[in-house]
Amino acid sequence: MYKSIVRPLLFTSDPEKVHHFTFKMVRFLHQLGFGGIFRSIYKIKDKRLERTLFGLTFSNPVGLAAGFDKDAKLFKELSNFGFGFIEIGTVTPKPQAGNPKKRLFRLKEDSAIINRMGFNNGGVEEAVERLKKNPGPESPNHILIGGNIGKNKTTPNEDAVNDYLICFEALFNHVDYFVVNVSSPNTPNLRELQEKAPLKALLNTLQQKNNGKPARKPILLKIAPDLTDSQLLDIIDIVHDTKIDGVIATNTTISRDGLTAANKKEMGGLSGKPLTSRSTEVIRFLSEKSNQAFPIIGVGGIHSAEDALEKLNAGASLVQLYTGFIYEGPALIKCINEKLLVAKQ
Prior knowledge:
Elements: H1 2-10, H2 15-31, H3 35-42, E1 51-53, E2 56-58, E3 62-64, H4 75-79, E4 85-91, E5 104-107, E6 112-115, H5 124-131, E7 145-149, H6 160-171, E8 177-181, H7 196-211, E9 219-223, H8 229-242, E10 246-249, E11 269-272, H9 276-289, E12 296-299, H10 305-314, E13 318-321, H11 323-328, H12 331-344
Parallel strand pairs: 3-4, 3-13, 4-7, 7-8, 8-9, 9-10, 10-12, 12-13
Antiparallel strand pairs: 1-2, 5-6, 6-11
Helix pairs in contact: 6-7, 7-8, 8-9, 9-10, 10-12
């Protein structure tokens, strides 16, 4: 029904307007009591799907990637579609409008999206107020939340660590793990923080603050798919040296290889099917070269259960959806989990 009726209707309008409309509709349907119906259709409860990583138990290995629910407005409702975890953000210390519109583009011929949103969000404090509604980890109704943090556009790179620390402190009691985002192509000069020296300094500072807490939280690093093999080896060294808990591979790409859509030259980060192979390559490289030394969350171009299994087989412990969720609908989550259960038989 989604691909035959709902998606064609949604894809007739501007992508960003559709995103906000969809949020309103999902919230409205839940207010009418459809949450239980969605859970019964899409959610699979089976202990065999559980994954335990860095001290957290995920009910299943399929999560929602950052960027979809930036401001933690709909994490409870979205979890009813069967996700094992939800990653909110990227959030920044201060609210910011992001880049000028139009900034979100569908490439239907390529099953892809280009975005240059620019960390548009209401600021970390606004997200915290919403996250307070999530029951604590001891509750059976707790939704496992990742907090994806970044810097404001106006903050120079030499002061970026302060922005990450502000977000870290504000979110600490309200998320289950953190993701340090230095890989978005849509904030000027942000990717320079992926270089070895500034990245190591940033992560060490966060770890120092983390280790000073009564109970620390896992910290992961989200990396770009455009890194060279040499840079990926640097990432492995950095994870080892800073003792962070894992890597999310990958963010969007600036590559435009093999695209056919007329709007393929729009500036921004590309996600969707064109990223499938490269994301898996990065996962496999990190897993093999590190001797599986740390967990990897695989994201990028997952549009089928086979895509998800390919990433898991390449070395990912969990996977996340974004563009695939938009193109394939919530049935994709259930399809992946069903395929995993079949593979265990």
